[in-house]
TrEMBL record:
<keyword id="KW-0732">Signal</keyword>
<comment type="similarity">
    <text>Belongs to the bacterial solute-binding protein 5 family.</text>
</comment>
<feature type="signal peptide">
    <location>
        <begin position="1"/>
        <end position="21"/>
    </location>
</feature>
<dbReference type="Pfam" id="PF00496">
    <property type="entry name" value="SBP_bac_5"/>
</dbReference>
<dbReference type="InterPro" id="IPR030678">
    <property type="entry name" value="Peptide/Ni-bd"/>
</dbReference>
<feature type="domain" description="Solute-binding protein family 5">
    <location>
        <begin position="94"/>
        <end position="481"/>
    </location>
</feature>
<dbReference type="InterPro" id="IPR000914">
    <property type="entry name" value="SBP_5_dom"/>
</dbReference>
<dbReference type="InterPro" id="IPR039424">
    <property type="entry name" value="SBP_5"/>
</dbReference>
<keyword id="KW-0813">Transport</keyword>
<protein>
    <submittedName>
        <fullName>Peptide ABC transporter substrate-binding protein</fullName>
    </submittedName>
</protein>
Length: 597
């Protein structure tokens, strides 16, 4: 959901419903299989809605990031596209990063590259991005107080192809490279440094006030989705593809950038990114042969042979992710309840993750008990998280509540002993408060609907009323932002946007965006000073133990409701399409796709 490179994926594989004709216009029911084109199915009900390679809170999804990175290559492409999470130099503008021996600065070298209009890519283009982010950090989804750009104290241009970033202290260089430098996108300063469409290049971004005006102009232009095709802003690119069309319904057509001079030269001339409102619609397109690279749900694995008989290969796409429902700790009616650890423990102990993973996800998910991905082994996972500190037991969950001043009335727990004592409901929980909460969940997903229904039934046994409201995932994101109790938008209580995983990490799965106080994607406004210290330690220490300490503490403190971590998707790929690995960070990389000729 996306934010440094860590990304809000916000649910990808969804189903149920009817075929979206308008959203799939252009497929004509026929296969695109040819050396010159490919039809790629975007996650259902999750349409691209942003082109600017700077994420903001309402535009955090990997579709947007993948498209933007195809147009404007990142400084450091740190991803899993080569089969392991590492620096993919072929897809990067930088060719080298030399860290100072004291760990307090880094000098980066740019390749000899040019923008599509022939102008050279220089250190000035990186500084342009740097100044925009410095002046507008609160609006940047990747911002976490104390981290980039706060911890970058200076930008010094050495020459057109070298610059030095100085830090406020020593950092783990591997973390800095993978999680912060990978967030930088060189931008065409000569074409974008303006405050309106007709203005000449002003160099305004060298002042904070100027950078704010430029930011406003760029973001305003990026909101005009229907104008992407013609707006000259989006024509000056550095990546392997250009945008030919970008529909408000979600269909995007990319064409190979003939001026591209980087290391990932595109093999396929036209890439059609196709939107679907449901996975059933997408599945029908697969059956008709009009999708070359698509997906099925876990519930459809019994149909695998049908797709292989049609010339497809079925392969799971595993993700470096966690899945969760954030609490809104500032919700006026339930925030005080959510702030009680025992209450969060009762909720967590009511979630039967093993059964959800086995039955709802058909074995294509693993239980997740904390902030570190558990589908893949790593040195970051603590024994505490791995061992599940809150095993499923509705009886134990109910005891937690009755032991803290709650009494079951009409099947719902009610606070009958308010106060802050050890056996009372807790500070701020009023007498008569009913333990009832509502989730705003992404719509259109059979898997998600089934999981929410199972959770509802389980919580009911504990005496917790759980109601479910659904909306398209982009709407879920926009309706459940960080907020204060006095704001009308703060009526939300729980949010779910993770059918295919809620949050995809960088190589280092630190919690600065998610669980640090005022983190850029800390939707529920969770705050714990001890966790903040552990997050800081995880980014500065060279020892994996620092991340394990963080893993254990967050697993026990329950800032969110942990849920099973599914595969990103069960991919269905037309035979003959290859040349790539499925990126565990959930990006797609069309420049790597190749048809066997």
């Amino acid at each position: 959901m996306s934010p440094a490179r860590a990304t809000l994926v916000a649910g990808a594989v969804v189903s149920a419903g009817t075929l979206l004709l308008a959203g799939c216009s252009g497929t004509s029911g026929t296969s695109s299989t040819s050396p010159d084109s490919i039809n790629y199915a975007l996650p259902a009900n999750f349409t691209p809605n942003w082109i600017l390679p700077i994420g903001t809170a309402a535009h955090l999804n990997t579709n947007n990031i993948s498209i933007a990175n195809s147009l404007w290559e990142p400084l450091v492409a740190y991803d899993g596209s080569t089969g392991k999470i590492a620096w993919n130099k072929n897809g990067s503008v930088a060719t080298a990063a030399a860290f100072a021996p004291d760990g307090k600065s880094v000098t980066l070298t740019l390749g000899d590259r040019r923008w599509s209009d022939g102008k050279p890519i220089t250190s000035r283009d990186v500084e342009f991005w740097f100044n925009l982010i410095k002046a507008n950090k609160e609006q940047w989804a990747g911002y976490n107080p104390g981290k980039a750009p706060d911890n970058w104290t200076s930008f010094k241009t050495v020459d057109d192809h070298h610059f030095t970033l100085t830090f406020d202290k020593a950092y783990n260089s591997a973390w800095m490279l993978a999680n912060e430098l990978s967030a930088i996108n060189p931008l065409p300063q000569h074409a974008w440094d303006k405050t309106d469409a007709s203005a000449a290049v002003s160099d305004a971004d060298r002042t904070a006030a100027g950078a704010k005006r430029v930011w406003t102009y760029l973001n305003s232009a990026a909101k005009n989705i229907s104008g992407y095709e013609k707006d000259a802003l989006w024509k000056t690119i550095s990546g392997p593809y250009a945008v030919t069309s970008f529909s408000t319904a979600g269909k995007v057509v990319l064409t190979a950038n003939k001026k591209y001079d980087g290391g990932e030269k595109p093999d396929i001339a036209t890439v059609n990114l196709l939107p679907f409102t449901t996975a059933d619609a997408e599945k029908n397109a697969l059956r008709s042969g009009s999708v070359d690279y698509g997906y099925i749900e876990a519930t459809d694995l019994d149909q695998k042979d049908r797709f292989t008989a049609q010339g497809y290969t079925v392969k799971p796409w595993s993700g470096w992710a966690i899945t969760y429902m954030p609490y809104n700790f500032n919700n006026p009616s339930m925030g005080a309840v959510f702030k009680q650890l025992y209450a969060r423990q009762a909720v967590q102990r009511s979630i039967d993750q093993s059964s959800l993973a086995k039955v709802i996800f058909n074995g294509t998910a693993v239980p997740g008990y904390g902030p570190i991905p558990q589908a893949q082994s790593s040195d970051f996972l603590s024994p505490t998280q791995k061992g599940n500190p809150y095993p499923f037991s509705t009886a134990a969950a109910k005891s937690l509540l009755t032991g803290h001043g709650w009494t079951e009335q009409g099947g719902v727990m009610v606070c009958t002993d308010p106060g802050a004592g050890a056996s009372q409901c807790g500070d701020g929980v009023a007498k008569g408060t009913r333990f009832q909460m509502q989730v705003l969940s992404q719509s259109g997903s059979t898997v998600t609907d089934n999981m929410m229904s199972a959770i509802q039934s389980s919580l009911e046994k504990t005496g917790i009323k759980f109601t479910i409201k659904t909306a398209p995932v982009n709407s879920v994101l926009s309706q459940t932002p960080p907020c204060t109790a006095s704001q009308s938008i703060c009526a939300w209580q729980l949010s779910f946007f993770g059918t295919a995983g809620s949050w995809y990490f960088n190589a280092f799965p630190t919690g600065d965006s998610l669980f640090q106080s005022k983190g850029g994607s800390n939707f529920g406004s969770y705050s714990n000073p001890e966790i903040d210290q552990l997050i800081t330690a995880s980014t500065t220490s060279n020892s994996a133990q620092a991340v394990r300490d963080y893993s254990a503490a967050v697993a026990k403190d329950l800032p969110v409701i942990w849920l099973p971590e599914p595969d990103y998707q069960i991919s269905v790929v037309k035979n003959g399409l290859g040349g790539f690995s499925q990126d565990s960070l959930a990006n797609f990389h069309p420049a790597q796709w190749k048809w066997n000729r």
